[in-house]
Design brief:
5 helices, binds ligand CA2
């Protein structure tokens, strides 16, 4: 049976994350964006949820995805806004406006890197942030999101 929109988690990846697996493996590992999306789909399925995975290099398109999540009554958002995390008040405002339970993920440990990565605007609109776990952070985020929205793993 098709899952209703209320059982959908939007997984949003921002600029340059389409390059995962092709460069800077010492920082971001060897996994590709397709690997991330597969991991999110598999993890969501354990909870009877569906992962709707999107990536964009454009701030406005990411905002449109957040609005779409609201329009489709998404159960949650997992977002790695990439570099926009550190610059985008507009993405912060979009997340605040929709009041969908949100977890922020960063593949790298942003606090062990340059100081300009230590602040995230989007994190302020999330109930939790995970960083430094590599792509496993997405799996952990979906587990935490499911717990927050009261969805248990299916037997
Ligand atoms: O650690 C993360 O997930 C980041 O959100 C990644 C962003 C960076 O600006 C944030 O500070 C932390 C950058 C994404 C760039 O991704 C690439 C992946 C492979 C090769 C080059 C860039």
């Amino acid at each position: 049976m098709a899952k209703s929109a209320a059982e959908t988690i939007f997984v949003l990846n921002g600029p340059n994350l389409n390059l995962l697996g092709s460069r800077e493996p010492e920082t971001y590992g060897h996994a590709t964006l397709a690997d991330v999306e597969r991991l999110c789909a598999e993890t969501s399925a354990k909870f009877g949820l569906r992962a709707d995975c999107r990536q964009s290099n454009r701030e406005g398109e990411l905002i449109d995805f957040i609005h779409e999540a609201h329009a489709k009554k998404a159960a949650g958002i997992v977002i790695n806004a990439g570099g926009y995390s550190h610059t985008s008040i507009a993405l912060h405002d979009a997340l605040m406006a929709v009041t969908i339970p949100t977890v922020e993920v960063h593949i790298s440990n942003i606090y062990a890197r340059e100081s300009f990565r230590h602040h995230s605007f989007t994190a302020r609109a999330a109930f939790a942030t995970l960083c430094g776990f590599g792509i496993d952070g997405y799996r952990l985020a979906i587990n935490g999101l499911a717990a927050r929205i009261g969805v248990k793993a299916k037997a």
